[in-house]
Amino acid sequence: MSRRVIWVNGELVESSKPSLSANDHGFLLGDGIFETLIVRDRHAVFIDRHLRRLRTGIHRLLIANTPPDDQLTDAILQLLEANNLVDARVRIMVTPGSGISALERGTQPLTVITAVPLRTKPSSVSLCTVEWVRNERSPLAGLKSTSWGENASILRFARTNGFDNAILCDSTGRLSECTTSNLYLVIDQQIVTPTLNSGCLPGIIREVLLEKGIATERDLFPSDLAQATAVFITSSTTGVVPVHRVDQLRFADDSQQTAAANDAIENLSAS
Question: Which domains does the chain show, CATH number per domain?
Answer without folding.
Answer: 5-117 (3.30.470.10), 125-270 (3.20.10.10)
